[in-house]
Design a protein that fits this description.
Length: 311
């Protein structure tokens, strides 16, 4: 098998390790140049490939005519994609005789699109998974090769879940690649009527709506906390990041509208009223300052019951 591997992030790193262990001929690793505006907390696919003597390419547009011609000259039997961030064109996918297979971080057809791990937590899901599927022009819509479910704990952050997804994806590839090579892997049509689609999340999407239920705000906090941009509100016109919180089904008291500080507990944090229940903020950060326990911040800045957040 001659493989062209399009990969990025830790999922790409671990899946490339699986293929290297199979000792197939990897004719090219295609990845991204790191964005200087992005926090790079994951391992380098490019470094791994170069250390093993595999040619590395970082095209700005993998669907450009010159890069497609380069891929033709590489003559891959199969394209494999692991968290590569660009859609591949039909012309590119037509080069290998076996087409292209992608690893997606959800149980397709649910959560097609970008940031499936973050969205699953934000939406309060109890389960997600990984899917190997054939690539077609429509994102994440090709026939399913194999899937593996992954549970989501009530306190899991996006990073916790992502680490589980990495392991599950590498294991699924290890189990399934021999079947792909032999031509005996499944090919199951997706039911598009069951599909859900989500776009990429932007930093500004982390703004908290205090009229939402406490559980929903909590899910947002854990879905975009470190190493992601974070959920935020405002205090006296300054952006206040909420890095850690805990929900309570009932309200601490009946005073104030959503966003009102209900209580300050030393050693714990501050309770904030939501549209349904209360949320304990335990670690926060005013923009431009250090992250601190929220009860310390409350003392430092005089945040007391009756203070309104979100203004």
């Amino acid at each position: 098998m001659r493989l062209a591997v399009f990969a990025y992030h830790d999922v790409g790193y671990e899946c490339l390790k699986v293929l290297l262990a199979f000792e197939e001929t990897i004719v090219a690793v295609v990845t991204h140049e790191d964005d200087p505006e992005e926090e790079i907390w994951f391992r380098s696919v490019a470094d791994l490939a170069r250390a093993r003597g595999v040619p590395v390419y970082t095209p700005r547009n993998p669907n450009a005519p010159d890069f497609i011609e380069l891929m033709r000259n590489c003559s891959p039997d199969l394209i494999l994609s692991f968290y590569y961030r660009r859609l591949l064109s039909e012309e590119l996918l037509a080069i290998p005789r076996l087409g292209g297979i992608n690893l997606h971080g959800s149980l397709l057809p649910k959560y097609r699109g970008q940031a499936p791990v973050n969205w699953a937590i934000i939406n309060g899901e109890a389960e997600t998974g990984v899917t190997l599927h054939y690539m077609i022009e429509e994102a994440d819509a090709g026939d399913i090769v194999a899937q593996s479910p992954v549970p989501i704990g009530e306190e899991d952050t996006a990073l916790d879940l992502y680490k589980t997804i990495i392991a599950a994806g590498a294991e699924l590839l290890h189990e399934t690649f021999p079947l792909i090579k032999e031509g005996t892997a499944a090919r199951i049509l997706q039911d598009s009527r069951q599909a859900t689609k989500f776009g990429r999340r932007r930093p500004e999407d982390g703004k908290i709506r205090w009229d939402s239920p406490a559980r929903s705000v909590y899910n947002l906090v854990r879905g975009v906390t470190h190493p992601y941009p974070g959920a935020f509100t405002f205090w006296r016109g300054e952006k206040l990041y909420i890095w850690q919180a805990r929900p309570l089904s009932g309200a601490i008291n009946d005073r104030g509208v959503p966003g009102t500080v209900e209580a300050v507990e030393k050693g714990k944090g501050i309770w904030v009223r939501t549209g349904d229940g209360s949320l304990l903020l335990t670690r926060t950060q005013l923009e431009g300052e250090e992250e601190v326990p929220t009860d310390d911040m409350a003392v430092r800045y005089g945040i007391s019951p009756g203070t309104r957040l979100g203004e």
